[in-house]
Structures are given as structure tokens and as C-alpha cells.
Amino acid sequence: MSAHDVVLGFVTSIRHPHNSTDYASVEAMLWESVTEWLGQTDPRFVIVIVSNRPVELPHDERVHQVQVSFPPPSDARTPRTGIDAVLRDKGTKNAVGLARARELGADYVMFVDADDFVSRRLTAFVAAKGGAPGWTITDGWRVNVQRRAVRHHSDDFHLQCGSSHIVRADLLPPTAAGATATQDELYTEQSELLERWLGSHMHIHDDLPLSYLPFPGALYRVGTSQSHSGNALGGAGRPITRAIAAEFGVPATGGTPWRLARAVLPSARAVRERMRMLRPRDRD
Questions:
Q1: Reported pTM
Q2: What are phi and psi of 168, to 5 degrees?
């Protein structure tokens, strides 16, 4: 596939190994995500992964790894390192990934959280709408893969997840320093946009003339110990239907009573927390 044929570049960054309590699970979730991203119905896409050390990935010519030597953004050995550390580490790694996606000829770029799944129709949709500034994903699902359960999120959920925007590459910050740039070079080149657009997903829709994607575009994985947010799907859920499974490349919920009950009913943790909230407080 030549550079002129690349419609969409999926760019993801992997946390520093120091800021993980179980890096093997991070790599395992990345493998699952990349495998799903490769299922796009239109083959004109590339995947760029930026990490501090090589990771094992599915063998495909569209998958590209870029290794950086950036230091740990935080001394804390925890996935939840604080917003400043996230903005610096994720922003600079996404900038490197953006540079590589441009080198590969991507017309559009989507920054994707490494543990999320995306609709298999995205590349085909973008190809049919070529020239538009881009889209914000506000319609999708939260998923707990272990429970085989999903929950439809509200229209403002894009403010809480990094897999939210598809943007025409020429509208994103410059990457003249290339995929070998240092963090200092990237900050000098991109200034406040490095954190505002590439490290965060809170502002880009308001700053750019993006439209809303007209169908569910992402399946946001929750309930893992390695996420920045710590979001969970503790309450009631819905079974993963065959249609959702086909759209996002995840296993459907089994038809046994046990599988259905586990998907639909709140988790034991959610029930305990609810009971604690309802328990009368001790009086003096």
C-alpha cells in the first residue's frame, strides 16, 4: 500500500512501564485492540504504536512501532499518575505518532486509547467523506470484557475518553521535528497545543470545526486496573449482541443463564457500595 492510499492513521501511545502495576496486562490489551483495529472493512489505514520499549504485536504491514526514550512522567508506580503527567507523556508520544502517521501518508488521524475498540466502518466512512475537517465520537459503548457486558454512554461521554476524534492531518499541530524528536523539541514546536490537543481530548472539538460521527464509533474498555481513569462498569449492563460483536470485534455474550445474569446484573462490588450508601450513619 503506497502512502497515497492511506486514508486513516490510528495512533496510540503506551504508558511508561514504570507507571504500571502489571505491564503484561497492558501489552495483552494492546494486542487485543490492535487485532480488532485490523478488522476495518476498508484496508486503507495504518496503525502507529508509540512506546518506551518494543511490544509484541500482530504481524501486519499496516502496523508500525515507534520506540522513544522519554523518562517516566511520574515517580509513582501506579497507572493513575495525575493529569500533568498524563498530558506530558501522552501528548509527546501522540506527537511522535502523528509525525509517523504523516510520514506514512495518512490523510486523517485518530488518537485511540490502547485498550479501546473502534467501529470497523471508520476508515470506509472517512474515505467517503474525504475533505471534511473531521468528527467527534459521542455515540458508543462502555464495555467490561470479563463480564461480556456493555452500557450505552451519554452524549457527553466523549469528554471522558481519549478515543474521541478523527481529524484531518493538516489541521493538527506541526511535526517537522519528526518521529525522533525529543520532548523538549516537541514542546518548542507545538507549544500549548501539544497538551491541549494531543495530550488531552477536552478541547479539540471546541477548537476545530468538527462534526459528530453519525453512528457508534468506539467501544470503551472499563473495569481494568491499568487505565488512567479507573472507570468501571459496576452497575447494571446489557449483553453484547451479535451486532455489537461484529461491529467492534469483541466476543458476544453467551446465551447461558449465568452469562446473561453476569452481564445484566450489577457487580457484587456495586451492590456493596450501594448498600453502604443506604446504611444509616451512626449517631452521636
A1: 0.85
A2: -60, 130
